[in-house]
Amino acid sequence: MSSLAPGADLAAATRIDGARRSRSWKLPIGYGVFAALAVVLFGVFHKAGTATFSLSSAHDFVHLPSVPLPSTPTGIVVIVLLLAATAFAIARASAGARTPMWVTVVFAIVFVIGFLAWTAPGATIPIPGLLVGALGLSAPLIFGSLGGVISERVGVVNIAIEGQFLAGAFASAVIASVTGSALVGLVAAVVAGVLVSFILAAFSIKYLVDQVIVGVVINAFVSGLTGFLYSKVLATDTALNVGVRFPALPIPGLSGIPIIGPVFFNQSVIVYLMYVAVAAVTIGLFTTRWGLRLRAVGEHPQAADTVGINVAWTRFWNVSLAGAIAGLGGAYFTLGSVGPFAKDMTAGAGYIALAAVIFGRWDPIKATFAALLFGFASNLQNTLGAINSPVPSEFLLMLPYVVTIFAVAGLVGRSRGPAASGKPYIKA
Q1: In Å, how far are 65, 68, 251 from 62, measured between CA atoms?
Q2: Strand pairing class (67-70; 124-126)
Q3: Model pTM?
Q4: What pLDDT, on a 0 to 100 scale, did the predictor assign at position 262?
Q5: Is the pLDDT score of 344 beyond 70?
Q6: Same domain for 116 and 32
Q7: Are residues 118 and 194 in the same domain?
Q8: Rounded to whole angstroms, how far apart are CA atoms 78 and 75?
Q9: 3-state SS, residue 50
């Protein structure tokens, strides 16, 4: 018979049960899958040759030497490190503890280095160019994920990020072409994103229509409208789509730092606005009265209503703010990238941004890192294609989407978003 009091027995049993429930095997399984893949690729199907990693660009203050990595020895080292990380994750899960995030980051970096050394023997891989392109492809995703975090934190599922992207891209290209000013085009993109979000807010908050259905309909509507206007107006009057762009603005001193300088400090105005947006949303969401009210409405609108917060008003204007931020992401496709608008040029990026919101667990910083991961996967296919990698082109095209599915379904699994997200609030 136990010498502990019944209350102590119950507490001990609760702790044991909680420890068992806290064990999560998703991460060790994910590690194991990639470790096994590394054994097959880098071990069984190893390749002879040496891949060269170029670490400097022409404008760096200090030119770092290139790093040659022989494919086979690098693959063996990578396999050993990945297997060690997998064993560590299994041990942590067995003890009911979580694997630190930095281990996952290092695991991913090591695997990517091994994959590049395996797939590009005899080629030179420009690391600064790879990272610059990754940040460029991530920029609209980051804007979209920030808009998604704000919208869902206040209780409205924002499936319409894709439509806000398209509206922002179209409006920015046309207005910038008419006025000759990229800055005016940027303002037009914000307005277009807000207008699209007005539709989402009106139907989901005022008329209580299912938010997911409204978002899908908005995406289809904006896609059809911009496609029609492109075919009937922009294709015949090229003066309305000349392709005005923001120039790159290198920050003196910082832009010459090897590797990180060209990536972070030699960018356009839109990317610098992205840095500000990430910091502003993070600080505002967790340290200000605005953020407290927003989160309260998204978690428990009834309680927020009882303390005097206007739930409908708070949701409406914060969904509009989310649309403005997503509109900036749409402007990047034109003003920050290619210039002219093209039909359906966002290519589903809004849905990838929504996946970043879920992968980031509705946190602005985590969603930003998730968007960076998806952007890196997208640019990796471009880099491997440029160096004539033997990896089949079909696999390279599907790489970003495979990463998205694995990240959301494999690493996130079951996760809890804001309690009232997607649920209309009817005041009693």
Answers
A1: 10, 19, 16
A2: unpaired
A3: 0.87
A4: 86
A5: yes
A6: yes
A7: no
A8: 5
A9: strand
- Mean pLDDT of all residues in 140-156: 94
DSSP 245-280: -PPPEEPTTGGGSTTHHHHHSEE-HHHHHHHHHHHH
Say which amino acid occupies 89.
Answer: A
Give the chain's domain count. Answer: 2
Q: What is the DSSP string of 171-236?
A: HHHHHHHHHS-HHHHHHHHHHHHHHHHHHHHIIIIIS---HHHHHHHHHHHHHHHHHHHIIIIITT
Partners of residue 126 on adjacent β-strands: 54
Q: Measure the CA–CA gap between 39 and 78, rounded to whole angstroms.
A: 9
Report the DSSP beta bridge partners of residue 125.
53
Q: How confident is the model at residue 61 (pLDDT cuts 50, 70, 90)?
A: confident
Q: How far is CA 408 from CA 136, 355, 411, in A?
A: 22, 7, 6
Decide if 426 is inside a domain: no
The one-letter amino acid code at 317 reads W
Residue 424 lies in a domain: no
Helix or strand holding residue 299 (H, E): helix 289-299
The CA distance from 408 to 414, in Å, is 9
Shared-domain flag, residues 138 and 104: no
Quickly tell me which residue has 């049960």 as its tokens.
17
Task: Using alpha carbons, list the distances in angstroms from residue 14 to 5, 6, 24, 98, 419.
Answer: 14, 12, 18, 19, 25
Residue 7 lies in a domain: no
Could you tell me if 148 and 245 lie in one domain?
yes
| pLDDT at residue 13 is higher than 80 | no
- Strands 266-267, 249-250: pairing is antiparallel
Distance between CA atoms of 373 and 20, rounded to whole angstroms? 31
d(C-alpha 157, C-alpha 161), whole Å: 10
What phi, psi does 125 have (nearest 5°)?
-105, 115
| Predicted confidence (pLDDT) per residue in 298-315, tens digit | 999 999 989 989 999 999
Q: How many CB atoms lie within 10 A of CB 77?
A: 16
89, 29 contact by CB (below 8 A): no
Summarised one tens digit per residue, pLDDT across range 269-279 is 999 999 999 99
Place of tokens 């029609």: 228
